[in-house]
Amino acid sequence: MASRSIKTTILSLFGAAALAACGPSEPPTAGAPPQAERLSEAQYRQSISDIFGPDIKVAGRFEPGIRKNGLLAVGDSVIAVSPAGFEQYDSMARGIASQIVDDKHRQTLIPCAPAEPKKADPACAKQALAKYGRLLFRRPLNETELAGPTAMAGTAADTIGDFYAGLAYGLAQLLDSPSFLFRKDAVEPDPDNQGKFRLTAFSKASRLSFFLWNAPPDDELLRAAESGEIQTRGGLAKQVDRMLASPRLEAGVRAFFIDFFDFDKFDALAKDPMIYPVFSTKVARDAEEQTLRTITDELITRNGDYRDIFTTRRTFMTRNLGIVYRVRVASEHGWEPYEFPAGDQHAGILTQLSFTELHSHPGRSSATLRGKAVREILLCEQVPMPPANVNFTVVQETNNPVYKTARERLTAHRTDPTCAGCHKLVDPIGLGLENFDGAGAYRDLENGAPIDASGDIDGIHFSNAAELGKAIHDDPAAVSCLVESVFRYAAGRDFDKGEKEWRGWIAKQFAADGYKLPALLRRIATSKAFYAVTVSDQRVKEAQR
């Protein structure tokens, strides 16, 4: 990666205090009702690592998330935990708690020593549970919330004859709590707007931290919430700038793009080994990491234009990837920077394995799947599902002696009028990537016939994959899609009808900031819209009682 540090990049970007004051003022928004979002697997694991240390193991299965309008982060706000899922959480909680109190960790993790190791010590148990409850719940616990796990720790300690074994029961109760497993919005009357409500300081801190770091608030952010500093404009800006300057920003950016690019599908990716012997699970993992490294290098380390991820020739390679890309990689292990030469068709993330192999079939490429992915993921456009009775025989017959290339087979397939409409939306895009087979390797021929990789997207003609990347680079829809997806990911919800003006405003600010991702993150993280909540009349009456 470039030698310039993340911190230096961010500080140079926001070194002038004028940034907060420049540009037109933010349009008002009503916000959305308070909600609860289930922690993702990555957020759960990161929480345990941050709070108890990276050597505490999390063993168990997590129920899969659901995508809502393209994002798992939005789906997390409508998903529930099944009985089987709760059993898994409980099993993980007990395993984590037992490690916290074992001989290896208790001296460093438990903040006090019991008066008698074989008996209950309510004062010490309460001290430990209060410390970790604050971090797990992302806010201090009240006396009622502490009473339950403290009593359980005492009862278990006296029954078992071991203070630490009893404390593990209390810790497991905290880990099982919905207050840990879900990020729940809490609201309070807004002192600056009579009759209105706002997020509490702790809910605000939690929303901010999971957005920028994909992790729970650290101690400094919690202290800013405890003091009320985060509820002030200057205090919020101070925390946002601190978090943007932290190396932890990279983890937050990666988490967004993993969701945005559907990279969770790598878990189930498979290829026919007889057709694609170069494919392996190691290659797939490296392909995902290659794109994430490319993106973070371009957008964070270099503070580049977001649109350039579709045209850049700079990337990173491992020896496993080098075999598929047919390039020499000197490093036997690990990663090294690599730049494709001018004129090479490998230009931008669309030509990387993470896109070409992920959006293909196990035994063949797919212009349709790739074109659909461009439309739905990168441009935020919905492509209709195919009719249930479609005959795909011609498309799937890759050894057809008459229709040797995918373009010829798709042309024949589109003679069916029920297929033509959808395919016109996606095939002319995906055919631009037909020089890459189902495992992402470059090819000039298919079944001995030359591949025609020309196509068009919304009237813009291109001749090959590199030109397709340039067309996406120049498409305003790609920019709008990124901006709206970042906000929806951050807020865990879709836009409300009343936020149309704000959507236009934030897109204009992104353009004015040179399409720089850190600037967009700051704009959203310091905006009123990101934290705005609207509360029902019934809830207002309940709060006033």
Explain the overall architecture.
This protein is mainly α and 545 residues long. Among the domains are: 39-183, no CATH class; 270-473, no CATH class. The chain is built from 25 helices and ten strands. The chain has helices at 6-14, 41-52, 72-75, 83-100, 106-109, 122-137, 143-160, 163-176, 178-181, 201-212, 219-227, 233-244, 249-260, 281-301, 319-325, 353-356, 367-378, 393-396, 406-413, 417-430, 465-473, 476-491, 500-512, 517-525, 537-544; strands spanning 36-38, 182-184, 187-189, 197-199, 314-317, 336-339, 445-446, 449-450, 455-457, 460-462. The strands form five sheets. The chain has a two-stranded antiparallel ribbon with strand order 1-2. The protein has a two-stranded antiparallel ribbon with strand order 3-4. Strands 5-6 form a two-stranded antiparallel ribbon. The longest helix has 21 residues, at 281-301. Residues 6-22 and 540-545 have low confidence and may be disordered.
Q: Which key features would you list for this structure?
A:
disordered C terminus, 6% strand, mainly alpha, 545 residues, two-stranded antiparallel ribbon
The largest sheet is:
2 strands, antiparallel
Poorly predicted runs: 6-22, 540-545
Can you give the mean pLDDT?
Answer: 91
What gross morphology would you assign?
globular
Instruction: Indicate the structural class.
Output: mainly alpha
Q: Over the alpha carbons, how many angstroms does the gyration radius reach?
A: 26 Å
Through-space gap between termini:
58 Å
Number of helices: 25
Q: Strand share of the residues?
A: 5-15%
Instruction: Give the helix level as a range of percent.
Output: 40-55%
Strand arrangement across the biggest beta sheet: 1-2
For the secondary structure, the number of strands is 10
